[in-house]
Fold this protein.
Amino acid sequence: MNIFQYQGQEEDHYTNILMCILDYKDQLILPQFIKGLMAYHANDFQFSNQSINIRTKYCPQQSKPYEYIIGIAPYKSGVIHSDLEDNSGSIPDVWICGNNFNLLFEFKIRGTLDEGQISAHKRLFINEDVQVIRLTWDHVMESLEKIKTNDSVLQYLLKNFFEIKNKFKSKRRSSGMPKEIISHINRKNELHFIITGSRAYKPYKVEMVFNEKTELLRNDLIGITAARRYIAEYVYLNKDSLPFTYRGDKTEINDYCVAPGRAEKKNLWNQWRLGSYFNK
C-alpha cells in the first residue's frame, strides 16, 4: 500500500488512505481501531500476525474462529438485493486479519450498502452464514477519535483524515433515481457512451466517445435498459483494449442520454457500475 497512490475512484482513494494510516508502523493503532469499531465482537480477538490487504478477492489467510463482514456507509440500510448485482465477481475493498479473526470490509462513501454485493461477499467464506455488521462513517470516526498515541506522524495523519469527514455525508438518492445510477457527473473528457432515443423516437442508438472521436456501436436497441446492457457487455468483451481501468463489477461506466427533440439542458449524464447491467 502507498498512501500517495491515487486509486482512480474517490471511494477507493479514501479507503486506501485509511488503511495506510492503520498499517503504519506494523499496524500500531489497528487493535485500538478494531476494538473501538466492533466493541464486544472484538473481545476475544488476538492481535498478532496482523495483515491488511486491499482489493483482494479471497481472504489471504486461512479460515479463523472469528469472521465478520463489516459494511461501512453513510447510511446503514442497504440497496435492495438484485440477482443481477449479486455475483461472484464482486471484490472486497479490504481484508483485515489477525491470529484468530478475518474481517472483510466493504466501504461506501455515498448512499447505502449494496445488499447484492454483501451477499456475494458471504460466499467467500467457508461459513456463508457469516455475520454482517452494518456501521456508518460516524462509527469509524468515533473509533479513530478514541485512539491514544504519542506518535506525532499518526497524530498528524488522523487529524487530516478527520477533516474530510464531510466527504462521507452525502445525501441519499432521490426516490426517483434508479438504484443502478450512482451519480450524474459530466465525464465528457473520459471514455463515455451516448445513448440516443426515447419512447417517441425508437430504436435507440449507442455511440462510444473518446478523445473527441465518436463511433457508432448499435442503432437497433429497444430501450435505455437494453442500451446499457449492451454497453456493459461491450465493455466487458473489450476491456483489454478500452482506455479505462477495469475493476470487475465495480467498473464505472459513463453515459450521456439524449432524447431527440428535448432541450439540451434536460439531457442527462449518468454513472453506473458494470455489475448493475451485466451478468457474466
